[in-house]
Amino acid sequence: MNTICLVMDRLQAGYLGAYGNTWIETPAIDRLASQSIVFDQMLVDSPRLEGLCRSYWQGWHAMHPQPPEGHRSLCELLREKGVSTALLADDRAVFSHPLAVEFDEVLEIDPPWQPQEAEHIEDTHLAKCFVEVLDYLETARQPFLLWCHLGSLGTTWDAPRKFREFYCEPGDPEPPRTVRVPDLRLSKDHDPDELLGMIQAYAGQVSLLDTCVEALLEMLDAGPLGENTQLALVGARGFPLGEHGRLGPGDEPLYGELVHVPALIRFPDRLAATVRSQALVEPADLWATLLDCYGLTDPPPTPTARSLMPLVRGHEVTLRDRLGLAGPSGDRAIRTPAWYLRAGDMPELFVKPDDRWEVNDVADRAHDVVERLQAVLDEFEQHVQAGGGELKPLEPLLVDGLE
Questions:
Q1: Which of 148, 214, 255, 394 measures 20 to 30 Å from 29, CA to CA?
Q2: How many domains does the chain have?
């Protein structure tokens, strides 16, 4: 069996139809979702690519400073099964990552930059990346793992102008012509028309991505390769678009628009197609899942990684009762089925899953929940740094919420 992992950096889950968006057209990704198991609650453990890649490739949580010496990577373990591995990336932080050398082949794509919008789809950086993907698949030695990390959603918005104009309603100002990706704090008196134009530009890039995904699906569905290839579409980091006063990554606070990412897996036999899982999922789980899929059912132990296959096969409905997150400058957060806490001197608490994008902070009305979750977060971090061990199940208040 072959695997394609399509990791899209700066793809916000809320801008896909499969995750509830109703105004951006993503028919190819929607079709892919209808043939896949969709994980509604995947949160990255860190928005820093160094830690995130380690989670994806070694199954080791970002809160741990360093995996034990000799802990083998995904590529090393798959090599024992005769699986060839290739990394295709357009971000130097990824293809120069210390673990990137474990791939049998590393295909470096020049980081994107264009001074203006492309005239045609094929001239965009994203389309050129997908051409590289298709070219690799044409000659790939099977079985293979192709890991694609593509970051142009966060580096250049060069889709042809019609893509952003498609999302303009009558009476809207003309969308901006810049391809520069914004990165700023919004002032209280910011111009809403300027923000709208940037949102339309981002929507155009998402539509461009959908067009590229369609080409990949057509190739897989047209020949024998698709009959023996599983495809995972997952996120690396989301992209703030005005939420919490930020347009662009900024200081990367741990809010949903940044850390809640899409995750779906299409299996060759359409196992679990149309299933939606509400289980709490993290990047290290993909590492464990791929090992499981290739028959490596006794992987090296890590503090948090869990195979998703029990969810896929319908044997379980949940894997864990908490997720811990680590951000820049010591930022920390914890998610349970009922709550999301951003810890710190001024903690913020949000009710989950109802408050999807953390709009209503209820910390001042639930001091006991804040205190308990802060203690749980401290315990979780100690658990990860100690390399694992037993975590006591959370009390009902932290799992089920207030009655």
A1: 255
A2: 2
